[in-house]
Amino acid sequence: MKRAATAAAIGCLAILAGCATPPTPVDTTQAINPEYLIGPGDSINIIVWRNPEVSMSVPVRPDGKITTPLVEDLPAAGKTSTQLARDIEGALAKFIQQPVVTVVVTNFVGNYSEQIRVIGQAAKPQALPYRKDMSLMDVLIAVGGVTEFASGNRASVIRTIDGKQQKMQVRLDDLIKDGDVSANMMMRPGDILVIPESFF
C-alpha cells in the first residue's frame, strides 16, 4: 500500500514538473549604473569656491581631457562629476589651499558606451546620450521619427550582451503608425538602432 502511495506521489510530482513554466531568462542588462559618466563633447562648469578666477566652463576634448587655468590635460571622460571634482581639487591643491570644487555638466553627450546610435532611415540619424528608463519610443521622438523611405518593421536593435552582439527585430511601423505599444521596448546604453530602406 505504501509502495502504491509513493509511486502515485512520484507520478503526480512528475506531472507537475512537466507543467511548470520554465524560468524566464534574466536580462543582466537591466542593472544599469544610474550615475552619468562624462564623455567627449560634454560641456562642464567648474566652480572653485572663493576662486572665481579659476572657475569656468570648458568642453571635454575628443581625447576625453579638459584644460583649465592651473590644470592642464586632466582626464575627464568616464568619470562622474563628483569624481572629476575631486581630481581637480587634487590638481589645484598645489596652488590653492584646500580648494573646494563643484563640477556641473551642462551639455550632455556621454561616453560612446553610454550612447544610443540611430542609423539609416531616421529623420535625423544621430548619437543620443542614454537616459534612465529610455524606451524605443523616446529614441524615435528624439530623432524625429523615420523617413518616408523607411522599412520600419524591418528595423533592428543591435545590443552587446556579455561581449557578444545580438540583433533584435523591432516593429517601428506598428509602434509609430498603429500606436501598438507592445512594439515598444526599453533601450540600453550602447544600443544601435538600424532602420533600413524599404524596397519598392
Structure summarized in a few sentences:
With 200 residues, the protein is α+β, with helices and mostly antiparallel strands. 21% of the residues lie in helices and 26% in strands. Strands 7-6-10-8-9 form a five-stranded mixed sheet, with no helix packed on it. It has a three-stranded antiparallel sheet with strand order 2-1-5, covered by helices on one side.
Task: Report on this structure.
The chain is α+β, with helices and mostly antiparallel strands. It has two domains: 43-107, wza like domain (wza like fold, 2-Layer Sandwich), CATH 3.30.1950; 112-195, Outer membrane lipoprotein wza fold like. It is built from four helices and ten strands; from the N terminus they run αββββαβββαββαβ. The protein has helices at 2-19, 81-92, 136-142, 172-176, and strands at residues 43-48, 56-59, 65-68, 71-75, 101-107, 115-120, 126-129, 156-161, 164-169, 192-195. A five-stranded mixed beta sheet has the order 7-6-10-8-9, with no helix packed on it. It has a three-stranded antiparallel beta sheet with strand order 2-1-5, with helices on one face. A two-stranded antiparallel ribbon has the order 3-4. β3 (65-68) and β4 form a beta hairpin. The longest helix has 18 residues, at 2-19. The chain is elongated and about 65 Å long. 22% of the residues are buried.
